[in-house]
Amino acid sequence: MVTVLGLTCLLCSAILGGAYVLTKEPIDKAAAQKTNQALSQVLPPFTDVEYNEEGRYYTAKDAEKLVGYAIESTTVGFGGALSLIVGVTPDGVVYNTSVLSHSETPGLGAKCTTDQKFMSQWKGFNPAVKKLTVTKDGGDVDAITASTITSRAYALAVENALTKFNEIAGQAGNDGGQDNE
Fold this sequence. Notes:
Number of strands: 5
Radius of gyration: 20 Å
Structural class: alpha+beta
Largest sheet: 5 strands, antiparallel
Distance between the termini: 72 Å
Mean pLDDT: 90
Number of helices: 3
Shape: globular
Strand content: 15-25%
Order of helices and strands: HEEEEEHH
Low-confidence stretches: 176-181
Strand order of the largest sheet: 1-2-3-4-5
Helix content: 40-55%
C-alpha cells in the first residue's frame, strides 16, 4: 500500500512539474506583453524604460529626458486585491492608470476596467488641484455606480502610487542624477 501511494504521489508530482515547465514560458510572455501594453497606456511616448524591482516602478525616458514613472500599486477592493499601474509625469500629475489585475465582482466593481467615465477621470488627474477621494467622501473622484468600495480602493491605489512618486522624486532630486524637467 505504501509503494502504491508513493508511486501515485511521484506520478502526480511529475505531471504537475511537466505542466509547469510547459506553461511557464507562455505565461511569462503573456504577463510581459500585458505589462508593456499597460506602460504604453499610462506613460507619455518613451524610447527607454528601466524597471526598479525593489521599488516596483518603471522610469521612462525619451532621448535621455525623463518623461515619467509607472508605479505599481496594489490595494484591497471589495473582492480582493486590486493591482494598478499608475503613470505619473515628472511634475506629479497622473498621466493615466491601468488595471493589471483584480478580483472584483463582475458587472459591479469589475467596471473599473470598462467604465469609460470612471477610467477617463484619471487622465491628467492633478492631486495639487483635485482631492483624491470619492465624491461621497468629499473628494473629486466620481465613483462607479454601486461600487463605492472598489472606487475607494482604486483611489487609494492611485494615492499610494503618488506617495511612492514623491519618494522617488525626492531621491532623484537629492541624487542630482535625474533630469526632472
